Amino acid sequence: MNELELKYGCNPNQKPSKIFMDNGKELPIEVLNGKPGYINFLDAFNSWQLVKELKEATGLCAATSFKHVSPAGAAVGLPLSDVLKKIYFVDDLELSPLACAYARARGADRMSSFGDWIALSDVCDKETATLIAREVSDGVIAPGYTKEAFEILLTKRKGGYNIIKIDENYKPDPIERKQVYGITFEQGRNEFKIDKDLLTDIVTDNKEIPEEAEIDLIISLITLKYTQSNSVCYAVGGQTIGVGAGQQSRIHCTRLAGNKADIWHLRQHPKVLNLPFRDDIKRPDRDNTIDVYISDECDDVIGEDVWQNFFKTRPERLTDAEKKEFLAKVDGVCLGSDAFFPFGDNIERARKSGVKYIAQPGGSIRDDNVIEACNKYNIAMCMTGMRLFHH
Q1: Structural domains for the chain
Q2: Each residue's pLDDT tens digit, 354-379
Q3: Which residue among the candidates 40, 46, 162, 230 is catalytic per the annotation?
């Protein structure tokens, strides 16, 4: 099959719509179930590239959670601590390495991951399918599915869940094209390889980047390669914890991603871990409520009567002082940027979220100012020399 008709394009008024291969070539995918749409396939093909490259770079299975052609989270299959199992709502499940990767990817930004598209680097197993089955998701792409996993996924969305199998050996042509306003654009594919060799030009006084930080920097950079630019990504412990995508200003990317990283850390605060939720509250409602509970507008958004809809008892407020004290202890976070930092203010904001290691292309006329800001906080920063814009 070299052509697949779709219901419509980005919006219902955009018809006709299809995906197809030129020159009679076969599509490298098989739709095993459901009817994926135009945006589904954009997410599927971008997300598959991300996890494929993550596995090649780290040797670990990988997963990502995509929304609107950018990753909400990405991760490799490292084991989860008891705290992470609890904040990801998986403390009652058996977890394979691949399931750990998706739990991390989904848990990076659970608000943004609601209704996500999933990509898995490896054959989907029973444990991963069991986790996917209980989350709100549009579909999944993987190189294969075990029989048990496939049967579990078929139970989603009344049997209509989108399941795509991709040929993991497929290699696209080196030249890619797209049309805008009837005009065809052509360029070479971005096949730049991201690995540890990219992290050797350390320009700060602190020259120490441990192996676990190297993995996190690689995760952040590969994630950025498939994130709508401008973009900045925070990562720690084998996963992203904050992605700032599609901002016109780099400092806004750094702030947006940093705010998400702060929320990820605050979800681990003892007061959040011990919130007295009612037993009948579903996971998406818990996510929304936790987000509001952590926010500064908590009492303005949720009144006394509304709290009773979510909790067995009224929870004690998480104060600004408590949040500041908790976040002040955060350290060892990695940060990647898809283009150079033009000002040191990005470093000042990143440090507030515990950033210790940075990878960015360099090349700004103010590189000295950025390096000085890193030295002020003993941050190790490497210059990759490679911009990673994605549009």
Answers
A1: 3-171 (3.40.140.20), 194-266+327-383 (3.40.140.20), 275-317 (1.10.287)
A2: 999 999 999 999 999 999 999 999 99
A3: 230
